[in-house]
Design goal:
about 450 residues; alpha/beta; 8-stranded mixed sheet; 15 strands; globular
Length: about 450
């Protein structure tokens, strides 16, 4: 039935990844009938519920389709589906809370910063052979990072947070290596890891970030790298506080060969302090993006870390794009120097919307999560039903399948564009549509 291809794995995430790998390579062609769940469970020596969870994940990602007793088949199109393709079409007249974009009213004007960059360029155009990092940007970045307790290290500039994370992973890991990621977590990262040939080890998350027991398990299972979101975790809003940071540093201290990557994309929109983890392992990196605070099209992120990691990243970058536009770097210098964004003001604006929705849901007996940032995560018993019912009620929310590996079902609600008048009707609709799941962790 499956030809020469053999599905492998002991966990639901590994079984799903094995099927996706077969689909991506063409070994499992469109229309292929997958083994019945009990049959595959017997072959793999796992509980049938594990295979059922794997098949459910594959259905939600658009890789397979199930037709009752006729079984599950590889979908004809698309053969594989990136998580971003799981967006629910939003009909006219429906309020779209799926996008994850910042509120444009809270973004600063770029006119003055770009004009200043142009004037600087007129005086001293950028030419080949110059330092890829604008010295003023490196100085401002290092001063701020040092004040927050980030260990000393060189600076690189990448085209956004994901570009920085990819370059650091590629600098140390090879196909087949395992990387521990948050679950639920950033969908783009969950797509990136398999695209690099890496094995994903999911780490459960609570309001304080990665759960220590889950991190310990991932490290014991051979994780070569660990990716942690410092603040405004997507989709849960989790924040790594001082106590959780201490626990994670203690775990990492016993695994000095593990690569640590910290994602601080919430810089500029969160007023909670950064509690860095870097410096415990030999190789580490922290990436700080400007996208959420200054606009997604300002493709600049500052990257720091140990000497070896940054040397590898900058060396490989020279062989590709060379550098991130110094015009854009200069614009960031102007924005940072002028204080164009007051993090406390932005954080307060998002907090009023986020906390208001969470409180309104609590009054209706629905528990949601969101300590920081612009998203609220709502664990639900039936994700598809919740999304469908809310859509019928006039609200589009993001399906949790875009953000999870083994975590339980949920939906993400982006509050950045939510008005105060919309909080109560949205809470009413959510309470009516989404039967909540219990638990403090998102699994």
């Amino acid at each position: 039935m499956l030809g020469e291809y053999r599905i492998t794995g002991r966990r639901a995430s590994d079984i799903a990844a094995s099927v996706e790998s077969g689909v991506g390579s063409g070994a499992l062609a469109p229309g292929f009938l997958l083994p019945p769940m009990r049959e595959l469970a017997g072959e793999l020596g796992v509980n049938p519920n594990t295979v059922a969870a794997a098949y459910r994940t594959l259905r939600e990602r658009g890789v397979i389709e199930t037709d009752g007793r006729r079984g599950s088949r590889v979908r004809a199109r698309p053969a594989t589906a990136p998580r971003d393709a799981l967006r629910t079409p939003v009909p006219d007249g429906v309020r779209d809370l799926t996008q994850g974009n910042p509120d444009v009213a809270l973004l600063p004007s770029l006119d003055g910063a770009l004009a200043a960059a142009a004037r600087r360029y007129a005086r001293q155009p950028t030419l080949y052979g110059q330092d890829p990092v604008l010295p003023d940007l490196a100085r401002l970045a290092r001063t701020a990072l040092a004040a927050e307790g980030v260990p000393a290290g060189p600076v690189a500039v990448t085209s956004g947070a994901l570009d920085g994370i990819e370059r650091v992973l590629a600098a140390h890991l090879r196909p087949g290596d395992a990387v521990a990621v948050e679950d639920p977590g950033w969908g783009a990262l969950l797509d990136l890891a398999p695209a690099l040939g890496l094995k994903v080890l999911p780490m459960a998350v609570d309001d304080e970030g990665p759960v220590p027991a889950a991190v310990a398990r991932a490290l014991a299972d051979g994780a070569r790298a660990l990716v942690v979101t410092a603040r405004a975790q997507n989709p849960t809003g989790a924040v790594v506080g001082a106590e959780r940071a201490r626990e994670l540093r203690d775990l990492l201290a016993a695994h000095p060969g593990v690569l640590l990557i910290e994602d601080d994309h919430g810089h500029g929109i969160v007023d909670l302090p950064l509690c860095p983890l870097g410096g415990v392992t030999r190789h580490w990196a922290l990436v700080r993006s400007t996208a959420k605070a200054y606009g997604p099209d300002l493709r600049v992120a500052v990257l720091t870390g140990d000497e070896v990691t940054l040397d590898r990243v900058r060396g490989r970058q020279r062989l590709g794009p060379g550098w991130v536009s110094r015009l854009l770097q200069c614009a960031v210098v102007e924005l940072w120097s002028s204080g164009a964004v007051d993090p406390s003001v932005v954080a307060r604006a998002y907090g009023l919307r986020r906390d208001g929705l969470i409180a309104a849901l609590a009054e209706r007996g629905v528990r949601a999560h969101g300590r920081s940032g612009m998203n609220v995560w709502l664990p639900v018993a039936d994700e598809t039903a919740a999304v469908t019912r809310l859509l019928a009620a006039g609200w589009a929310v993001a399906a949790g399948a875009r953000f999870r590996v083994e975590a339980g079902p949920g939906v993400r609600i982006t509050v950045s564009g939510l008005s105060p008048a919309e909080v109560v009707p949205l809470a009413d609709a959510v309470a009516a549509a989404a039967r909540p799941a219990s638990g403090g962790r998102f699994d």
